[in-house]
Design goal:
358 residues; alpha/beta; 7-stranded mixed beta sheet; 11 helices; 8-stranded parallel beta sheet; binds nicotinamide-adenine-dinucleotide; 23% strand
Length: 358
């Protein structure tokens, strides 16, 4: 039987441990995997685009475990009462090729994206960062808020969304969490939110080259956590921000980010640093307090690999309510796959024979 983690199970596992604790542990798992970057068989994700969205497959393996995530991105969905991003994934054993786990990854993606954002910020943002602007207050925004408050020491969150109802929802959710020492400020524009911030997180959804941040908004020393631009033709930053002579741009996996990230706007030889180089200490995430650092995040398969392995461990630790799903046959004779149907057919035949004779 294959382990199964649905939405309810993730809710159970995460609430038991605590959201911030889960994000912290996930960040640790992701960092440990980025440290062994050469172990992974990597490729850019496979994307199928339509005029309104994208469906992507994200495979990766370290030679022992294999994982893939199915994920969509449909910014118009929320107007129809649906999520912009949904996902599920599989963790498998490379030795047998057998799946070990089938898991929801919608909630888990939000957790892992927040974990990755914080992880990058730990290497790239100024250490005295206390104020963060959060542009885009949709599904991912609470996770980003909690992560940056708990794990990076953000004390003031400055919120902006073109949809005031989204900001009101985020405010309500943060208020209910009663996060001590966090001031939440609602702003009337992206410019107002960004002014004076140490960190700027953009997590908007729009299927176009949107310009959420313009060059004059960016102040020396800022760290930009650009999460929402993650597809060809779907970006958030004005290209001149990337082109600043004092800007340092870090990406997850260069071949994928060149196509999907903010750097798709730049020439092919535009300098970027892979995050694995920063983690390994071969490159710096920030050279000085005045540099503008940009984490051009698109989401890479390694982060989902780490997340699947992590939720699988939590799931297995709690044996009592560990669900499984029968998507792989279990046979006495593996060459006799037909026996599964033969036995059933014989029973059905016998039953119909009984009906006929009656
Ligand atoms: N980099 C990653 O790893 C990663 C992971 C998950 C999601 N994403 C991306 O993050 C984005 C947000 O995802 P979500 O699930 O929160 O989507 P969502 O639709 O729930 O929320 C997006 C919010 O952005 C707002 N918005 C749109 N245009 C705006 C603008 N010009 N200014 C301010 N706000 C604006 C919308 O009103 C909405 O509230 C998506 O683009 C998604 O593809 C990236």
């Amino acid at each position: 039987m294959v382990d199964f983690i649905g939405i309810e199970r993730v809710r159970e596992l995460v609430t038991r441990k605590g959201i911030a604790a889960c994000i912290e542990e996930l960040a640790g798992e992701i960092e440990a995997d980025y440290r062994r970057w050469p172990d992974f068989d990597k490729s850019p994700r496979h994307a199928v685009h339509s005029p309104v969205g994208v469906i992507e497959l994200m495979p990766i393996s370290d030679g022992k475990l294999y994982s893939f995530k199915y994920v969509n991105g449909h910014p118009k969905n929320t107007a129809e009462g649906l999520l912009t991003v949904t996902a599920f994934g599989v963790l498998a054993d490379v030795d047998t090729g057998y799946p070990l786990l089938l898991s929801e990854l919608t909630l888990t993606t939000a957790l892992r994206t927040a974990a990755m954002s914080v992880l990058a910020a730990r290497h790239m943002a100024r250490r005295d960062s206390r104020v963060m602007a959060l542009i885009g207050n949709g599904a991912q925004s609470e996770f980003q808020s909690i992560a940056f408050h708990h794990l990076l020491g953000i004390r003031e969150l400055r919120l902006y969304d073109v949809d005031p109802a989204a900001t009101a929802k985020l405010e309500r959710n943060l208020e209910a969490l009663n996060l001590t020492g966090l001031r939440v400020v609602r702003c009337g524009s992206a410019g107002e939110a960004v002014r004076g911030a140490d960190i700027v997180t953009t997590v908007t959804a729009d299927k176009r080259n949107a310009i959420i941040l313009t060059p004059e908004m960016i102040e020396p020393g800022m760290h930009v956590n650009a999460v929402g631009g993650d597809c060809p033709g779907k970006t958030e930053l004005h290209g001149d921000i990337l082109a600043r002579p004092d800007a340092r741009v870090v990406v997850e996996y260069e071949p994928q980010s060149r196509v999907e990230g903010e750097v798709q706007q730049m020439p092919a030889d535009f300098p970027v640093i892979e995050f694995a180089e920063v983690v390994a200490g071969r490159a710096t995430g920030r050279a000085n307090d005045r540099e503008v650092t940009i984490f051009d995040s698109v989401g890479f398969a390694l982060e989902d690999f780490s997340a699947l392995r992590y939720v699988h461990r939590l799931h297995r630790e709690d044996r009592a309510s560990r669900a499984t799903i029968d998507i792989v046959p279990e046979l006495e004779n593996p060459k006799d796959l037909f026996s599964l149907l033969a036995e059933r057919s014989a029973t059905v035949r016998a039953a119909s024979h009984l009906r006929v004779s009656a």
